[in-house]
Write a structure and sequence with these properties.
The chain is an all-beta fold. Helices cover 0% and strands 48% of the residues.
Length: 126
Amino acid sequence: QVQLVETGGGLVQAGGSLRLSCAASGRTFSFSSSAMGWFRQAPVKEREFVASISWNTHYGESVKGRFTISRDNAKSTVYLQMNSLKPEDTAVYYCAARTYYSFGYYYTEVKDYYYWGPGTQVTVSS
């Protein structure tokens, strides 16, 4: 089993920044070998891919150039730096993990991930 806990959400004005963190744990979980992703879900909308990190980094079109995903394998933590936030970025942000990845594949689908955190709310006011 893998446990994921997101922190760093909150209320911010448009144009501001937030950094989300996701700490992963699990007795047999090899964080450095895992693919990690961030998704978000706004009310009455489907869960949307935001960013992933595995053999490379990959971003959803709506966040390219504004968000940056990174990881610290020593801390088993993945981060999402969000800059130039817009009201349409308001959503619950979820961290996700899969226990392995393959080179050349982009993990952008909900079904690509095995484990999910409970989510953290991000609200961007206009």
